[in-house]
Each structure stands twice: as structure tokens, then as C-alpha cells.
Amino acid sequence: VQTSDITKTHIPSASDELDAIVGTTEKATNKIMESCEKIQSASAAAPPEVAKAIETQVTAIFEACTFQDITGQRISKIVKALKEIDKKTADLVRVIEKSFDPGSA
Fold first, then answer.
1. What are the tens digits of pLDDT across the range 50-105?
2. Does residue 40 contact residue 55 with C-beta atoms inside 8 Å?
């Protein structure tokens, strides 16, 4: 593995994959929440005790869907860290290459 592979391939690829995870979980969460809203609307025709039970469970699903926002925030922090590592790695590579370049002295 060349040092340039880290900054040109591996880190950008990892960042892209993490961004894709955020996008996919966001889409899935939105679909779940839309379905829950439809269930809530349909439950209005149910007897009150059934409607209440449905509402309780739908609320639990909505609350569970907050994972998407939390994971999105955490993944964004990881992407930021990867970019910082990328920058530091590139800086280090430049210093090392310069120290081995006989024409730089």
C-alpha cells in the first residue's frame, strides 16, 4: 500500500461509504415514519381501546426512529475525524518525502 493510496483512495472511500449509510438509514427511517402515520390515520376507525393501543405502539416506533438522527451525528463526527487524519497523513507524507529528496536541502 502506497502512502498516497491512503489519502487518495482509502479515506475518501470510507467517507463515501459512511455518507451512503447515513443516506440509506435516513430514507428507511422516513419510510417507517410515513407508514406509521398511515397506521395512525387508519386507527381512527378502530374502537377506542384498539386505537389507543395502536397509538401507543406507533409512538414507540417514532421514538425508536430517533436512532437515525443519533447515528447520523456520530457518523458525521467520524467523517470529520477521517478528514482530519487525511490532512495530517498528507502533511506527514510531504515532510517525509521532502526529507528524502536530496534536491530539497
1. 999 999 999 999 999 998 889 989 998 998 898 888 888 888 888 888 888 777 65
2. yes
**Residue with the three cell numbers 482509502:** 10
User: Which set of grid coordinates corresponds to residue 21?
Assistant: 449509510
Q: Which three cell numbers stand for residue 72?
A: 447520523
Could you report how far apart the first and last alpha carbons of the chain are, in Å? 28
Q: Which of 73, 82, 69 is nearest to 16 (CA)?
A: 82
Helix (H, G, I), strand (E, B) or coil at 65: coil
pLDDT value of position 3: 61
Is residue 85 within 8 Å of 3, Cβ to Cβ? no
pTM score of the predicted model: 0.70
